[in-house]
Write the structure tokens for this entry.
Amino acid sequence: MQYKLTAPGHIDTIVNLPASKSISNRALIIHALSCCDASMQQRMNEEATLPHNLSDCDDTQVMIAALRDMPETIDIKAAGTAMRFLTAYLSVTPGTHIITGTERMKNRPIKVLVDALRYLGADIEYLEKEGYPPLRITGKDLEGTHLEIPGNVSSQFTTALLLIGPVLKNGLELELTGDIISRSYIELTLHIMHDMGVKVEWSDVRTITTQHQRYEPRPFTIENDWSAASYWYEIMALLNNLPMTAKGESRDCIRLKGLADGSRQGDSVVRYLFSMLGVKTIFENTEPGVPTTITLKHVPTRIPRLDYNFINQPDLAQTFVVSCACMDVPFHFTGLSTLRIKETDRMDALIKEMRKIGYVIKEKDGCELYWDGEKCEPTMEPIDTYEDHRMALAFAPLCIKFPELRINNPHVVTKSYPNFWNDLKRAGFTIEE
């Protein structure tokens, strides 16, 4: 399937963003663990304590189905968080299960997590290639102990271990060695664990400690997704290049629902980064942690160049590579080492697809991308999405600058933002198959 996109002349819209899949999937694992040894009455009340405002994206739906049905073979498709979190969860849950996914998932490394769980006593077997899914896992009680893992691999490995820490007989003392990446996602995990009634803390700059204790089933509401918001910020930023009214004012206004000032989501930094690209954020309610509606407006300021380390927000890299280049803002982005092991090799994909629209993006040391203003002859071939939702989401706004932009396999957005295309249509975009 291919979509051809045409942008409206201006936008005035309100968007109900999807719930955060990062928070949803953490909360679901904690909810399942809280019910494992609950009384019969608590189990009867399980539905009452199921997290509220769960994401409807693919990644969360496969997690819900797996935890609800617990089939012998669990196919998580392309859901990386589900693969990592469920691997740890199944290791401490009675029964034997096989967990598998797409061909791409079978080539995403999981050895660091499996080695750590095996060190704790977990029974895990590789069924195909050593170090990669699918896995056969036989759950059992694990003792828990001091454990070291590299801090420069996926933070989802760290989170998977932290989530099961309180149910280990001796708790968990988790030491992160080397550089620590995506720290904001680790902090998000700790925050949610606190909200669910357990004590977990940094005992020093590299070590997180939690004792044996029980999660408490309690109501929990998921905030909407700041990562999804980033594409609307991108739209507003690109619209800023269009002519103003006769009075020199922008006619464009985008309102996004369900986001909180002081959010624990690492990608909430998008509001500060886009403020340097001419987009102002106005909160209806500034009470910390309380979801509200925000309004995006243009401001007549923009920095001439953007340098930023995305080590804690790698999922925003595609948004800013595309936005900056198409706004003629040179950039140098570092901290991108994990992009090569995402749904696709995002560094390679960005370089290839940006050339199609005339921008020469360069890579350095496998962890940096930069653009110095170099352009090439655009081919305007359809944008390929590589089975990666963020490729479609980040490139779609470019129809503002490139009318009738075409995107291949647009359905991939269901991984994190199922209603994206409908939201664009409601905002006035024309989408043709």
Remarks:
- The mean pLDDT is 92.
- The longest helix spans residues 21-36.
